Amino acid sequence: MSVKAIRPGYHGDMKDTVDKFHGQQLLGLGWDQHLMYATPLCIPVPPDMPFGALVEKVLPQLYGQHPDFDQIEWGRVQWIKAGEAFTPDLAKSLKDNGVGHKDLLRFRTPGLQGLAGIGF
User: Fold this and answer.
1) pLDDT of residue 31
2) From CA 8, how far away is CA 90, in angstroms rounded?
3) Does residue 105 have a pLDDT over 70?
């Protein structure tokens, strides 16, 4: 979002730049059609973490309480990054997959309807 300053020449100091996160970067995560989680979650992660570790270790901690989580067929999951379909390489790091500071990753789980019974 752009900001229009009321004083000419004003330059604000951004407080959430990657250099302020001690080697971590912020990552937004959203599970589409699963309304138990109303908004994406934002977590700090190391940019060199393999994408597979995100799936195997981080997502279960964040979403594991959802009754559908154990039914996810990870080979069928559809990933979205910056509004576009995205196919991550699980062996490569987040950085090598092009996932940067303050990016949003969404995932869709075909066949699972979520708590609201919304089909996908």
Assistant:
1) 94
2) 47
3) yes
Residue position matching structure tokens 């979205």? 80
Between CA 36 and CA 45, with CA 42 as vertex, the angle to 5 degrees is 130
Q: Measured between alpha carbons, how far is 62 from 15 in angstroms, rounded to an integer?
A: 25
The region that residue 66 occupies, defined by phi over 0 for left and psi between -120 and 50 for alpha, beta otherwise, is beta
Distance CA 111, CA 73 (A): 9
- pLDDT one-digit tens code per residue, 18-76: 777 778 999 999 999 888 888 999 999 999 999 999 999 999 999 999 999 999 999 99
- The answer to whether 119 touches 113, Cβ cutoff 8 Å, is yes
DSSP string, 5-67: -SSTT-----S--GGGSTT-EEEEEEETT-TTS-S-EEEEE-TTSBHHHIIIIIHHHHHTTST
